[in-house]
Amino acid sequence: MTEIEKLDAGLEYCFFDEEVVARKKRALKRSAKLNATDPADYGAQLVAVRELFGTTGKNIYIQPNFNCDNGKNIHVGEDFLTNYNVTILDIAPVYIGDYCMIGPNTLITTVGHPLSPTARREKKACGKPVTIGDDVWIGGNCTILPGVTIGNNVVVAAGAVVTKDVPDNCVVGGIPAKVLKNLVVD
């Protein structure tokens, strides 16, 4: 298998591979285009987002600066909003449902690196998808780690580091994040 085939299959791959680097360069250029777009020009911003992301709902609001590793692996639903300085490292797919908000300085990452120093010297990595349900609010300065699924109607408290799956209808917070409160659906 080529390194890009390994990456797409969810296997360990070399992130310095030429094809893998080409994906990242494309995302860097399209992220730069989005970030250079006048944030008050919603139409131009929407065009730039749709060129960058895999799929989107109708209403998408992204504040500068936004960064990603691929872009085409990001799939967002209706009424998606990010605040300032959000990064989505989408080496693997990231699925975000409808009516979701992401606070400033948040990182969603699908990429991890081996514990072995030899493998890290060989520039190895592995991607695991992230899935976020509907009606999720991720507060500022949060980190969502590879392989995590966040349920529907979840609030991730500011500063949380989400290392494990989160059930529906709750508030999570802390490092690592844990359920702080169950929510009643209205």
Keywords:
five-stranded parallel sheet, alpha/beta, 22% helix, 186 residues, seven-stranded mixed sheet, globular
What does this entry look like structurally?
This protein has 186 residues and is of the alpha/beta class. It has 4 helices and 19 strands. The chain has helices spanning 3-8, 18-36, 42-52, 117-121, and strands spanning 13-14, 60-62, 66-68, 74-76, 80-82, 86-89, 94-96, 101-102, 107-109, 111-112, 124-127, 130-132, 137-138, 143-144, 149-150, 154-156, 161-162, 170-173, 178-182. The chain has a 7-stranded mixed beta sheet with strand order 2-5-8-13-16-18-19. A hairpin with a 4-residue loop joins strand 18 (170-173) and strand 19 (178-182). Helix 2 (18-36) runs antiparallel to helix 3 (42-52). The termini are far apart. The model has no long low-confidence stretch (mean pLDDT 96).
List the helices and strands and how they pair.
Blueprint (H helix, E strand, L loop, with lengths): L2 H6 L4 E2 L3 H19 L5 H11 L7 E3 L3 E3 L5 E3 L3 E3 L3 E4 L4 E3 L4 E2 L4 E3 L1 E2 L4 H5 L2 E4 L2 E3 L4 E2 L4 E2 L4 E2 L3 E3 L4 E2 L7 E4 L4 E5 L4
Parallel strand pairs: 2-5, 3-6, 4-7, 5-8, 6-9, 7-12, 8-13, 9-14, 12-15, 13-16, 14-17, 16-18
Antiparallel strand pairs: 1-11, 10-11, 18-19
Helix pairs in contact: 2-3
Q: Which value, in Å, is the CA radius of gyration? A: 16 Å
Largest sheet: 7 strands, mixed
The mean pLDDT is 96
Query: Which regions have little confidence, pLDDT < 50, spanning 5+ residues?
Result: none
Give, in order, the helices and strands. HEHHEEEEEEEEEHEEEEEEEEE
Shape: globular
Output the strand order for the largest sheet: 2-5-8-13-16-18-19
The SS-based structural class is alpha/beta
Helix content: 10-25%
First-to-last CA distance: 50 Å
Number of strands: 19
Number of helices: 4
Amount of beta strand: 25-35%
